[in-house]
Amino acid sequence: MRISSILCAGALFALAGCVTTAPAKYSWGNYENSLYSYYKDSSKSAEYEAELASMIRNSEATAKPVAPGLHAEYGFLMLQEGKLKDAIAQFEKEKAKWPESTYLMNNLIRIASNPVKKTTASKE
């Protein structure tokens, strides 16, 4: 009984050593940590934007596809900062790489193309 359990355990360890994980399909970089850091402190938006830009550049340099949503998220940060042309360019890239996002990207492009102008009410 003891010998069979030792052999069984040895076989399991041997098989576990043969298991390989598939390489990541997309390049996510440091996405999780940077997103968590940004959510904890939204004043770090410049750092988060730089991290997203870095992830996109690294992904394109390694020939791995940019992860779904990274262009859109990067574009949304640019939209919030008023960089409308850059935001539209990122939305267009997201739409081209991920056709299933076309509806959402078209709406974000429309929003970036027609920004709401704030009016100041004068007291008279």
Question: Can you walk me through this structure?
Answer:
This protein is mainly α and 124 residues long. It has a domain at 31-113. It contains six helices and no strands. The longest helix is centred in the first third of the chain and has 17 residues, at 2-18. It is elongated, with a radius of gyration of 23 Å. The model has no long low-confidence stretch (mean pLDDT 83).
Number of helices: 6
Class of secondary structure makeup: mainly alpha
Query: How would you describe the shape?
Result: elongated
Largest sheet: none
Radius of gyration: 23 Å
Q: Multimeric state of these chains?
A: single chain
First-to-last CA distance? 95 Å
Total DSSP E strands: 0
What's the average pLDDT? 83
Unreliable segments of 5+ consecutive residues: none
- Residue share in helices? 55-70%
Q: Which H/E pattern describes the elements?
A: HHHHHH
List keywords for this structure.
mainly alpha, DUF4810 domain-containing protein, signal
